[in-house]
Write a structure and sequence with these properties.
With 188 residues, the chain is mostly helical. The chain has one domain. 86% of the residues lie in helices and 0% in strands. The radius of gyration is 25 Å and the shape is elongated.
Length: 188
């Protein structure tokens, strides 16, 4: 029996082409990835906003209302409040932008890629945010006359945090790349 005859028998048994893509299963997978990406992004944004807002208010409050407050710690508080405001503004922008995607297979995939790209940018921005926060803390420790070993420990902590955040960032980049590969396969 030749291959073409076997293919006709197979097609007639399943009433489906031999190399068909199950669009519903693919759409469900894309929606699942979109939901996962959106959940991680929402959680990250809210956590970053709350932490920066809370820590900024605390640091600023302690240093403004205490006699002899540290000017670098005041700057750190202002920086963290500014970061929270920046994150909140970007969150509102991202949520408003979600409405431009249709609810088709391609629309959901484009939406998932958009949110994943936003998460990668957010992760990279917060990695770079470690540098000014670390600098303000180091300057604050130096200005208050604390022991040099305390500054050294703080520096080691921020270096480890920076390199630890690289791993998280690479995970977000890999998820985005996976979605882009899926998009390329569907378009090609």
């Amino acid at each position: 029996m030749e291959f073409e005859e076997m293919q006709k028998i197979w097609d007639s048994q399943n009433n489906k082409p031999l190399y068909a893509i199950n669009e519903q299963a693919l759409h469900n997978r894309i929606q699942s990835k979109k939901k996962q990406t959106s959940h991680i992004t929402n959680f990250s944004e809210l956590l970053l906003i709350i932490v920066n807002l809370g820590a900024g208010c605390f640091v600023l409050g302690i240093n403004l209302f205490r006699p002899g407050g540290n000017k670098y710690m005041c700057l750190l508080g202002v920086w963290m409040l500014s970061t929270a405001l920046y994150l909140f503004r970007n969150r509102i922008r991202r949520i408003k932008g979600d409405k431009k995607f249709d609810r088709s297979l391609c629309g959901d995939l484009n939406h998932a890629i958009s949110v994943a790209a936003y998460q990668v940018r957010l992760s990279q921005t917060m990695r770079w945010n470690i540098l000014p926060i670390g600098a303000f803390i180091m300057l604050g420790v130096w200005d208050s006359g604390k022991a040099i070993w305390i500054a050294g420990l703080i520096l080691v902590f921020f270096v480890l945090a920076y390199f630890g955040s690289a791993r998280e960032h690479s995970i977000y980049k890999a998820r985005k790349r996976e979605l882009e590969i899926l998009q390329a396969k569907l378009e090609g």
